[in-house]
Structure formats: structure tokens, C-alpha cells
Amino acid sequence: MSSFAVNSPPAAVRSSFPFSPSPTPRTPRVFNMAVRSGVSTAALPILRKLQSDCATPLPVLRHVADAMAADMRAGLVVDGGSDLKMILSYVDSLPTGNERGLFYALDLGGTNFRVLRTQLGGKDDRVIATEFDQVTIPQDLMFGTSEELFDFIASALAKFVKKEGGEFVLPDGRSRETGFTFSFPVRQTSIDSGILIKWTKGFAVSGTPGKDVVACLNEAMKRQGLDMRVSALVNDTVATLAGARYWDNDVMVAVILGTGTNACYVESVDAIPKLNGQKATSGRTIVNTEWGAFSNGLPLTEFDRDMDAESINPGEQLFEKTISGMYLGEIVRRILVRMAESGSLFGKHVPERLLTPFTFGTPIISSMQQDTSKDLEVVGSILYEAMGVDSNLDARKMVVEVCDTIAKRGGRLAGAGIVGILQKMEEDSKGIVFGKRTVVAMDGGLYEHHHQYKRYLKDAVTELLGPELSSNVVIEHSKDGSGIGAALLAATNSIYEH
Ligand code: ADP
Ligand code: MG
């Protein structure tokens, strides 16, 4: 495990953010500002049409919120009843703060996986100590066999466990327990088992689909001679909710806005007809909405439709494709290609590099939107570095307008989705949300770093709820809460008493 990077952001985030967000470019560059004028003549109608197709006035937001609530309800009646899968998490006891002892968490959700240990000291001492490490999954293992992948994970985990010491203590006679955050589609069968439906995000490991991923991990840990058991299998949204709830009892919803997007919330078991009488003892359970699949009434453009048609999952995950980090930059790129083809953005030629899909990342659009310099120097520098084009001020302004249009639509629709969830909760149990303080825990690189997006999201929530109700709704960034959240869920689902 050579690539331990304690406390540093995932490599993927670092490498996808090559540009300085500061208002001055790293290397001063002289721009060729005099080549063209009248940039906007042909690009302007494209921009105007885009802005009207992407518009999210209050009635559109309201429709999305209502449709989200209706789709949630339909998905709770029967599996397959709606775009939203409304997956039962089997998490029906949330952290209270009383948890004590040593717990681990393992997070596999992309090209990195993270391991974490925490020593919990109960109500008074809370989190006594936490340590974590991050490991990159070698490319070949993403295409190998299930045993190879899980052996790699278990061996990295075993090395991490070997370094346990200091404030971390396991009582005699106990096995270590871990939470397992696994962010791939799983059919959960209990709190500590779930069948992998299919690999996504570039993984094509043979032999895992159809199998219980907890059993795969347990067997690999046994092969490594590691005495550890998985007490809770959860997805990252559920872990985020648990992590935030540990500090704040009013957390009822968690939303991830990163590469992809998802949301979960605390639901009353009486509102879940598809449970068929299997009732959680607490009367409440966390439901994972899988809201990325929502599609009803979204203001989509031809650029969205083209991107969707060329994607690996056409027709699927439309909400995710409209609001999440993986796609915002790509939508902007497609619009800029159209403007460039009209010959009115970067001179006669369409810049070669602009033609490659997914070269224009969402971090790029957010740094351009954060450029406050008079001449939009950061925008100029980014366009030069990312696409090799010299741009004049008119072109830079146009590019920023396009970025803003797409970020605004995304942020406002995400806000409408959140209101849809709150509305659904309130309609089914009066007073559960709107009569009191309610916290929505947010995490993910897009929400964390894209300041305009975050503002648009909050504005939409306020517009929809009005000043009075929205003053009770607190949208809070719960940074990396999912790691500790998974460890806490291992604690609340421990086989030992605490
Ligand atoms: P993941 O969703 O892959 O688990 P993160 O929550 O860290 O990981 O989110 C990473 C995503 O966040 C990136 O794919 C990117 O879309 C988005 N992102 C990262 N940095 C920024 C930024 N500066 N501005 C806007 N979006 C960003
Ligand atoms: Mg994540």
C-alpha cells in the first residue's frame, strides 16, 4: 500500500483540477485580442435559445418537486413502480452518539478505495481518534477476476490493520468490525449482505455480479488471515446520512453531488407498502432513492439529448446527466462546439481539442465562473491551456454565460429535487419536516467546490418553500461524512453489545 495519502483529496479530483482558481493566471500571457470583433453575432442566438430551453422558472421547479415526490411514492409501493428504485437500506437504527469502541470502514466506489478506523468514546468523548488511508485500484484489477480484486482490497486492509496502535484498542475476545460502503448497484438482502447487480464506473470484474459482495470480501479477508467481519453494507449516501446524524439529530436527508448524484432520507415504515409487513423495530428506515434516474419534466436541450444518445446508458440517469459533475462540463463543451462551428467564437476554426468528449471537466467550468478579473484572465488562460485557443473578451464572456446557464439549471433542479423529498416526507407525516428544524446533509466535489452551483441550489429551495418554511431547512456540507458514517453503522449494527 505505497500510495497512502492521508488527509489528501482523491487523486481523481486532484488531477481533474489542473487550473488555478485564483483570479490571476499562473503564467501571464499576452492574448491576441484584436483578431476578431463581433464574436457574438452568430453565437448570440445560440445562447439565447439555450437560455430559454434551460430556463427553470418557479413553475418548472414546482413541477419537478411535485413529480419527484410522486415518483418516490410510486417506487415505495412496488419494485419497478417508478423511475426511482427507492431501495431499502436495512439501516433502521441511526447513530446516537453513544457508540463506543474500535470500528473500521472500507469505501469502494471508484478508482480509489479508502480504509478508515475510528475509536469511539460514547456521548462524552465522541470520536477519540480517526485514521484513514487511500489506495488506488490498479487498472488491470478493474478487468480481472473477483478473487483478485477482493484479495487486493483485503490485503490492503490487512496492512492498514497491522499499523493499528496508540489510541485504538480492541477489547479481548472480539473480532474487528467494519462498515462497507459499496457504491455500485446492489440488491440489498439484509444489513450485512447484498447481491451485486452489475459493475459500473469502468469496472468489469468477472465473477462478482449475482454474488453477495460481503461474502466475497469476507472470504478474501479469511484468505488474508484477517480477523474482521462486515457488520453493515451501505451505499455512500446512506453512510453520509449516518455520519451527519451522529453530530446532529435533525439530519433527515443526505444528498451526494459529485461525479454522480444520489439522495436518501429517513422514512417511516408505515409509508412503505412494498415492505409487506416486515417492520423495522424502530418504525423508521433509510430509503436510498437512486434519484439520478428521475426524468419527469426536466428542461432538456438538444445538447442533452445528443450527449445522452451517445452515452453508455442512453435514456437512463437523466436527472444525473443534467445536474451532476460528470456531465456539466461535457454539456458546456457540446454547446461551445456548436458556437465554434458557427465561426463566431474562436475564429474560423473549431479548436481540435474541443472536439474530444469529456475533455472539458466540471472543475474547469467552475473555475471560469469564479473569475472576477475585469478581462476574464483566468477564463482566457483556461481556454488556452485546455483547448489551445487565444480568446478575446467577447468570446470569454460568451463562454462564461454558457457555463453559468448549465450550472444554474443543474443547481436549481437539484434544489427542486431536495424540496420534492421534503415535501413527500411532510405530506405523509405532517409536521415531520416543516414544523421544525430539518437538516439536509450534502457531500460531493461538485457541491463543495462549485460556489455558484451551491448558491443556485439554495436559491431554488428558498423560492419553492418561501422564506418562512425555508428558514427551518438547513442545507449543510458534511465533508467526507460517509467514511465515519460507515464505521458508525458498523457500531450500531455490531454483534456485540455496547
Ligand atoms: P465521487 O463523486 O467520484 O465519489 P467527489 O465527491 O470527490 O467524488 O466528486 C468529484 C467530482 O466533483 C468530480 O468528478 C467533478 O465532477 C466534481 N468537482 C470536483 N472539483 C470540482 C470543482 N472545483 N468544481 C466543480 N466540480 C468539481
Ligand atoms: Mg463519492
Automatic annotation (TrEMBL):
Pathway: Carbohydrate metabolism; hexose metabolism; Carbohydrate degradation; glycolysis; D-glyceraldehyde 3-phosphate and glycerone phosphate from D-glucose: step 1/4. Gene3D superfamilies: 3.30.420.40, 3.40.367.20. GO terms for molecular function: ATP binding; D-glucose binding; fructokinase activity; glucokinase activity. Pfam families: Hexokinase_1, Hexokinase_2. One of its GO terms (cellular component) is cytosol. The keyword ATP-binding applies. Coiled coil: none annotated. This is Phosphotransferase. It comes from Centaurea solstitialis.
